[in-house]
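My main concern about presentation is that the manuscript never shows what a single data entry looks like. The format is easy to grasp once an entry is in front of the reader. For illustration, here is how one protein appears when written out as sequence plus structure tokens:
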Amino acid sequence: MRGGFAASQIRQSARAEKLDSLSGDAVTWRLIGLSDATVQTLLQRHLQNQPTLSSGEIARLKNAGLTEGQVMERI
């Protein structure tokens, strides 16, 4: 919760038994500087087993100068 995630997001991840796998990605997304809305979208996609990019790939795209919107377009 100190990472800025709502209790409901944490509970939802725990119920889906994905808390361990998502926690590292969620921290990385925050460190990359993604907005709350984008982090929420990525969490939802993971919880719904929808395709997305890895946190490493998202970081590479951001480091290459892509905007958050451009990264989301690729997802």
The mean pLDDT is 78.
